[in-house]
């Protein structure tokens, strides 16, 4: 029989989106997963998540994206979901200076509850609402990222569908880069590495063949590698109980074909 190669496994990554209420976290997730945009979104209460399959640099990933409530009063509902994250998107709105200033608070909250090493964790700064007049100049964002030791920031518009997929792709590449760094460190320490499996992903991250639960559809885009990353945490999928309590899975109704051109 021809073409009987085993299907490539998909690596499961938990991605958490944090930032002030109204900066556009839910819109970003919906644009990425379903290519939809809703002008009249309700505030998120607690957390919601969606899955999306994506191919980056020839490797399959299932991104489990957690959209969190940005309003302060929901902190107790969102913080239990930080543990087990692989990537954190820190989201602000380009027309709202305060939302950039508050990113420090969001980062600190994440570090407190996710229990990860800041220098080894892939944070990506996302400036959303790129279609509106900017209140913040790029040098300020760059300075903030440098101060916080964050390597990547990108401007997006969920409304205009600008750079949304790119933001998630960059995040995966950053994660991959850190993974390689971790692998190199292990080699230096003389530890044995199983080259057939991702470092520290041994039992948990390899997800499934053919992808992520079918909620998002597969983005066939492929990306050239240059950069990458690693999270120091274990993947923990939500249990049925926690889903019932807080983490509702948002259904992407028919996922239309993405119109992103990368
Ligand atoms: N112009 C413009 N407006 C946007 C964009 N993204 C989101 N919005 C608007 O901002 C509103 C709030 O977006 P949400 O995605 O609900 O914001 P959020 O960060 O999830 O808010 P919380 O759920 O309260 O944390 C939306 O209803 C849109 O009207 C964008 O890229 N451009």
UniProtKB/TrEMBL annotation:
Its cofactor is Mg(2+). It is a lipid-anchor. Keywords: Cell membrane, Cytoplasmic vesicle, GTP-binding, Hydrolase, Lipoprotein, Membrane, Nucleotide-binding, Phosphoprotein, Prenylation, Protein transport, Transport. InterPro entries: P-loop_NTPase (IPR027417), Small_GTP-bd (IPR005225), Small_GTPase (IPR001806). It is found in: Cell membrane; Cytoplasmic vesicle, Phagosome membrane. It catalyses: GTP + H2O = GDP + phosphate + H(+). Pfam families: Ras. This is small monomeric GTPase. It comes from Drosophila lebanonensis.
